[in-house]
Design brief:
Blueprint lengths: L1 H22 L8 H76 L16
């Protein structure tokens, strides 16, 4: 019986010590409960910051992808414009060479290659 009483008293002492330990202040002046709350708040803040960082990185990647697509489109349109400009310049050069050849032939006496006068517009 005495052994049971000592065991019970020891158990109660351990429980009281654990509760007192939870309420006891640490050397930095905080309790275990305050430390647990601080750890929980820190974890919540870290999760929020990570979510914001992930969202920011997603926006940056989307902006980079949009910019790359715009640059590719610009390059394609610029190449098409330059190709059309070269085609028109070649056509113009070809027409000018033909005209110069017709002028030279006309001056040499080949009447068929001379320009025919345009009729005057009637008013």
């Amino acid at each position: 019986m005495i052994r049971t009483i000592f065991t019970a008293v020891a158990g109660f002492a351990l429980l009281a010590g654990a509760q007192a330990g939870a309420m006891q202040k640490q050397p930095d002046g905080t309790t275990a409960e305050e430390r647990a709350n601080t750890a929980r708040l820190n974890a919540e803040q870290q999760a929020k910051a990570q979510a914001e960082t992930d969202a920011y990185n997603a926006r940056v990647a989307a902006a980079a992808q949009t910019e790359a697509a715009a640059q590719a489109t610009y390059a394609q349109e610029t190449a098409a414009y330059e190709a059309e400009k070269a085609r028109v310049a070649a056509l113009s050069a070809e027409e000018r060479m033909k005209w110069e050849a017709d002028v030279a032939a006309c001056k040499a006496g080949e009447a068929a290659r001379c320009a025919h006068p345009q009729p005057e517009p009637r008013n």
